[in-house]
Amino acid sequence: MLKKKGVSSMIGYVLLVSFILLLAVLVYFLLKTYANPVEELKCPDETSIVVKSYQCDSTKLNLTLKNDGNFDLGGYFILATTSPNQEIATLDLSRNITSSISKLSPRGVKFGEVEGSDNSLNPNKEEKDIYDLTGLEPIYSIEITPLRWQEENNQKLLVACTDAKIKKVLNCTGTFGCVDECTIPGARECLGNGFRTCVNDYDGDSCYEWNAVIPCLPTETCSGGICMPQTGNIYYLATWGNDFTGDGSITNPWYNLTKAWTVVEAGDTVYLREGTYFYDRQVLSDKSGSEDNLILISAYPGENPIITKSSSYTPSTWPTALIYIRNSDYLHVKGLEITGFIPTNLDQWSGIYAYDSQYDIFEQLNIYDCGKGMTLHNVNQFNIINCDFHDIQNVYPGNSLVPEGLEFYSDSEDNLNAINYVDGCRFWWNAGKGISSYSYKGRLVINNSWSFYNGYTPGTFDNSLKSSGMGFSLGGTNTNDPGTIARVVTNCLAFRNRGWGFSENGDTYNMQIYNNIAYKNGLAGTAGGFDFNTAGVFYYISNNIAYDNSGNNYVLNVLTNVNHNSWDSSPVVTVDNNDFVSIVESQLLNPRNSDGSLPDIDFLHLVSNSDLINRGVDIGLPYSGSAPDLGPFETNY
Description:
Blueprint: H1 4-33, E1 50-56, E2 60-66, E3 75-81, E4 91-92, E5 109-110, E6 126-132, E7 141-152, E8 155-160, E9 166-169, E10 188-191, E11 194-198, E12 208-210, E13 220-223, E14 226-229, E15 234-237, H2 257-261, E16 269-272, E17 275-279, E18 282-285, E19 295-299, E20 305-309, E21 320-326, E22 331-334, E23 337-341, E24 349-355, E25 361-363, E26 366-370, E27 372-377, E28 383-385, E29 388-390, E30 406-409, E31 419-423, E32 426-428, E33 435-439, E34 443-447, E35 450-452, E36 472-473, E37 485-490, E38 493-495, E39 502-503, E40 510-514, E41 517-519, E42 530-532, E43 540-542, E44 545-547, E45 554-556, E46 562-563
Parallel strand pairs: 15-16, 16-19, 17-20, 18-21, 19-22, 20-23, 21-24, 22-25, 23-26, 24-27, 25-28, 26-29, 27-30, 28-31, 29-32, 30-33, 31-34, 32-35, 33-36, 34-37, 35-38, 36-39, 37-40, 38-41, 39-42, 40-43, 41-44, 42-45, 43-46
Antiparallel strand pairs: 1-2, 2-6, 3-4, 3-5, 3-7, 7-8, 7-9, 10-11, 11-12, 13-14
């Protein structure tokens, strides 16, 4: 016989199970009637979302998402973890969003600020949202699941694209200060003894990347976003200054560089204030800085000093130059505009002529309307960074000297071991060549530079000059070791030059020519894109594009190390206008970025479906995808 207590317990269990079953049924029907995302339905293949960039600290998360798939998106789930040991994200951040007026039920964020059930984020478009993290534990990672509205049985349902879910580990320990600046690629901010630069950050690791080319000098500190001298004296020049009554202070400045040169020592700075300086020949000779204490000659931050010749300028001793630097090492010349140095005799008139010097930096120079832009003679370890050389010509009757934008020259066998660098420079409308090393015996490394419209009367395509008009003229000496790689040219562009875009110009030593493009060059005879035709020389030529050059796209001799270019790719590729985002050439003349770097353009950048993407070979340069792209502009598709 059962005890009453046993019967009572059994009835209790039955009632409990019945209640649970009833609750489950109610929940089931509630979820069916609630606009809950339907995970049983699948989103189309190639539905995708990425975290393009983020900035965060303990109180705020700024998030930029990009639709990098092929289908429109309607919104997303965002869950977070607070520890690297937490495998499943459970913290729902959608309730903390502050930038969107439209939420999704039961949880989620809708793309766009317009109510409705459309898929509003189209492919390649971006969404920026802000989350308030106040009071939350520090965020370690986030998981993003994109959402789509899709039709099912004549009903529009919200589908979670679980196959496209992404996870991003965050670093919220101090990068937030760059949020506003990073909307403008190229904006700079001081960090320690160097600059960090705001960039379009597709990886989202940080809103900054280090600028390895133009850091603050070891003797400088950051002040208000400007690198200022840490040690040494500061002297000032101004257009109203006076070399006799001035003392070189900011309130009582001098006028001439040569005056400041009489007093500067290693670690000192000379600032030129705004305005036009009408100079006689300025000779800066026999005085040097040191590796840790350069002598800086610079535009005053935020101002534009212009140097031109005075009406009394009379050529006397060699060389004819507006600024002549001789036997002076460890200089840094920055931010000067040099113009109006037009020849009045048969000499070669250079805006700057540097001779027998080492370890000098020339940065953000703008040299134009001179007989020659800049001549570097018997120099070593020079860095020419983010400079423009243009509108160079010899107008004096009978003057046959080649009016080049930038020339490297050496007349001594002692210079075989010299090495010099050019980075981020432009050369255009130079009546001769853009950049030339015809009689230079050392090594030259050119990166990320553009040479175009050379070989003509500046501002026209007048062909009467009969100039060789090469964009990059890379040779001309027969004295170097044939086994030495003496020219390295990477990520450069040659466009619409009268002669060859890139030419070895009779050299007999090896060169590396990687990831360049030659487009519409070669008005002169059979000239065109790439000319590396000296017998017996083993050129290393890969990942280049030659397209629509008037003469020959390429003329090559030894092909042993020539591969993975647009003309010899396997499988075969074709090049036409459809491969490029833009062929609007005027972009080449856009103003430089605020840090002096080349302007952001899409001229000759590859479109996402170009067969030139991932067709190169790894030669040591950074790339994304399965292999390097052809040409100088690596894609992030």
